[in-house]
Amino acid sequence: MITAAIVIAVIALVLVLALGFEVLHLRRRVSVVPEEGGVYEALRRLDEDLAAVESVVSDLVPRLESVETRLPFAIRHVAVVAYDAFGDVTGRLSRSIALLNEKSDGVVISLLVSRDETRWFTKMVRGGSGAERLSPEEQAAVDRARGR
Fold it and tell me: Tens-of-pLDDT digits for all 148 residues of the chain?
């Protein structure tokens, strides 16, 4: 008799807990419905908010198109090669820096460091090749920038 009462009490407790969770779930769903203005007013405000978002998105479309048209010309690949340009200075202080876009067009900047002075040069790059003859270090910078 006592075990039957315990079993019934456990079943009743489980049912109470299940119903309690169901009530909490329904309260959360009902809390979305506004108290003032009704459902129609909430839908009207939602429609106004959606119209505002659509307006912002339509304003962003031309900007995005502008960025997309300029993106292929942006610097996307960069590499630096360090080396000793002259015999009187060691420590690999000279540098060749390749700055290339998506089409492998860009520029190589070389800084040649000697004991007395630093010289710098720029050379244009088109399609991964120099418009002028590139030094081995400059070509190495271009190749690294292109992932080769």
Answer: 677 777 787 888 888 888 888 888 887 776 766 666 677 777 888 888 888 888 888 888 888 888 888 887 889 999 999 999 887 778 888 999 999 998 999 999 999 998 888 999 999 999 989 999 999 999 999 999 998 7
Which of 93, 89, 132, 129 shows the shortest CA–CA distance to 111? 93
98 touches 82 (CB < 8 A): no
CA 148 to chain centre: 24
CA distances for 41 relative to 2, 45, 47, 49, angstroms: 57, 6, 10, 12
Nearest to 110 by CA among 128, 85, 88: 85
Q: Residue 128, SS3?
A: coil
SS (H, E, C) 24-48: HHHHHHHHCCCCCCHHHHHHHHHHH
